[in-house]
Structures are given as structure tokens and as C-alpha cells.
Amino acid sequence: MASKLRILVPVKRVIDYAVKPRVNKAQTAVETTGVKHSMNPFDELSIEEAVRFRERKYPVEDILAFSAGPAKSQDILRTAMAMGADRGLHVVEEKTELEPLGVAKVLQKVVEEEGRNLVILGKQSIDDDANQTGQMLAGLLGWSQATQASKVDIEGDSVTVTREVDGGVETLKAKLPMIITTDLRLNEPRYASLPNIMKAKKKPLQKKSMADYAVDTGKRLKTVKVAEPPARQGGGKVEDVGGLIGRLKELGAL
Amino acid sequence: MAATNALRYDVLRVYKELLYLGREYPLGFENYFRPRLHKAFSAKSGLQDQAEIKKGIEQAEYVKKEIEALYYLKRYRALKQRYDKPS
User: Domain containing A238: what range?
Assistant: First the structure.
């Protein structure tokens, strides 16, 4: 029996990829105030893939975009809906930065409440680069998972995923329900154009709070220190071949 | 005259869409993209012929696609540089 796809796509609002992050004075985090934010690029790939499922005439029932975070995450959900998600769910969390496990726990509840059978996540966010949420969610739900997907095909209940692994690709086959995380070469995300963003304002966006889910999202990790990478050291010039050989020997390269 | 007015909204629409796209232009919006866009449109503001106006709109749509592709490539390359293992 071919089941309808009820897709959940979680998205995260992160500092824009083109912005150079600055460490704050106290060396506890990266400066976020007054910095341009946008949707995590890997999440754009997941939205695009979900929308393409529909365009490829897969039986997509609906695509739900989800985001947990401050009020401004709404803009990201609007972008997701402009790209083709049907509705949005925003869990407001102003104060604390959520950790992957906390998000995975909330996502587990959302999956159960909304009756989802396919979750497509970005493989990692470009701010904390944890690469954990998808895997943790799969563990909590006990579902199959295919991470770093570069190609996805669905036939009835079975999903074939090509993954990028070290030195090649791996093809997995699993049954729905399942978790997929996206890699860079999965597709080419479309641009959320102005008319589509306008149209997306009419799409339903539900707002909830952390308290509605009653899960423990407390901090388990402590950031000890955040520091800039060391500045690149300039190269040096040598006089002649003898100087070069001498220098190489000095450095132990010969 | 009425038919020209009908096209007027198409021109305005595509101008607004381009303005929106231009906000993220790598070379800058205020000092680069906007004046150039304005110049390109005002250079053709005298067009009276329907077919020529339509051609202009088509060209604008083409530029729109080009800019979208530029943004995609720019982001793809940045991410590839940061996240792909060197091969």
C-alpha cells in the first residue's frame, strides 16, 4: 500500500553564510545582534527536496515547516513557505540557545502530534555545526535514517537514498517512516521570489511555546570559550636554491 | 494608450522584483545595483511600441534568472569550500 507522504521539514535561523562571524568580548559566543540572518543553507535543500517530491508527482499530502527559536524565526518560516511548504509551525524560545537533543525531543512530539511519516533535515546547521539533530530524532523515534543524502527516490513505501560517504557513495533502501538529512549536492534550491513571499503570508503559521510540549530542553553542554582561529602566518622568501634546501631541512621536510 | 497602461504594471512589477533581488547583490545595493537598475529602466522609459516594451520585460525576466543563478552559485561554492572534504 502506497502511503501518502506527510513531510516535516525543520529549519533553523542562522547567521547568513556570507557574514564573517565575530566573537563577543567575553569570549562566550558569537556576536548575533545586528547581524544578517537567513535560513540554514542545508535546510533550504530539505525544503526544496520536499517540494520537488510534490512536483515529481509523489503522493505528498502536506509539507510542514518547523522552526524553534526567537520571534524572528518566523521570517525563515515564511521563506520556507514561499519556496513551497504548505504551513508553518513556530515554537517560540527567546532566551536559551537550543541544543540538538532538546530540538530532537520537541521534533519527536511534533512528529507524533502531526502524524508525520517523513522528516527531511539539513545535515547540520552552519552556526554550531553539530550534525546531530537528525540522528538523535531517528534514535528517539526508532525510525530508519539516511544521512547526507545526495539523491532520494520513493516508490510506494520504500525509499532509496544515495548517500555521500568518504571516498564514494552508498545506496540505502528503507521503508517509511524515515529520517533523511541532506547534503550539498542533493538539489539546487529555488529562490524565494517576492511574489511568492507575498503569497506565503496567506499560508497558515501556527505559534506554540516550549511549555506546550513539556519536554526537558535544559542545557547539558557548557561553552567554555569561543575564540577566533589563529591568523594565517605570512610566507617567507629565500635567497637561492641553497637557502631553500637549508630551510626545508630546518623544517624537517627533507 | 490604454494598452500601454496595461503593460505599465508589468514593467513596475518586474522592476520591483529586481529591486528585491538586488538587496543581496555582492557589489552592493545602494551604490551599485539600484542606480544601475534605475538607469537601465529609465534608458528605455521612452519606448512606445508594444512589442518593444514586451521585449524589454522579457530581458528583465532573463536578468532576474541570471541573478538568482548567481546567488545560488555563490552560496554553493562558499559551502563547498567550507564543508566538502578536499578531493
Answer: 5-250
Kind of pairing between the strands at A118-122 and A178-182:
parallel
Residues of B in contact with A193 (CB under 8 A): 17, 20-21
Interface contact flag, A184 B16, Cβ < 8 Å? no
The CATH number for A160's domain is 3.40.50.620
Give the three-class secondary structure for A244.
helix
The Cα–Cα gap between B38 and B26 comes to 18
Is the interface score ipTM higher than 0.85?
Answer: no
CB A3, CB B64: distance < 8 Å: no
Prediction pTM value: 0.86
Q: Is A195 on the interface with B (CB under 8 A)?
A: yes
Question: Which residues in chain A have their CB less than 8 angstroms from residue B75's CB?
Answer: 17-18, 41
Q: How far is A18 from chain B (nearest CA, A)?
A: 8
Per-residue pLDDT of chain B (87 residues), as tens digits, is 555 678 889 999 999 999 999 998 999 999 999 999 999 999 998 888 889 999 999 999 999 999 999 999 999 999 999 988 665
Residues of the domain holding B21? 2-83
User: Strand A144-155 to strand A158-165: parallel, antiparallel, or no bridges (unpaired)?
Assistant: antiparallel
Residue A195: its chain B contacts at CB < 8 A? 17
Question: Which of A189, A190, A194 shows the shortest C-beta gap to B17?
Answer: A194
CA B44 to chain CA centroid, nearest Å? 15
- b/e for A50-70, b at 16 or more Cβ within 10 A? bbbbbeeebebebbbbbbbbb
CB pairs under 8 A between A and B: 32
* Interatomic CA distance for residues A186 and A191, integer angstroms: 16
Q: What is the C-alpha to C-alpha distance for residues A71 and A73, in angstroms, rounded to an integer?
A: 5
* Whether the Cβ atoms of residue A81 and residue A65 lie closer than 8 Å to each other: yes
The total domain count for chain A is 1
Q: How many domains does chain B have?
A: 1
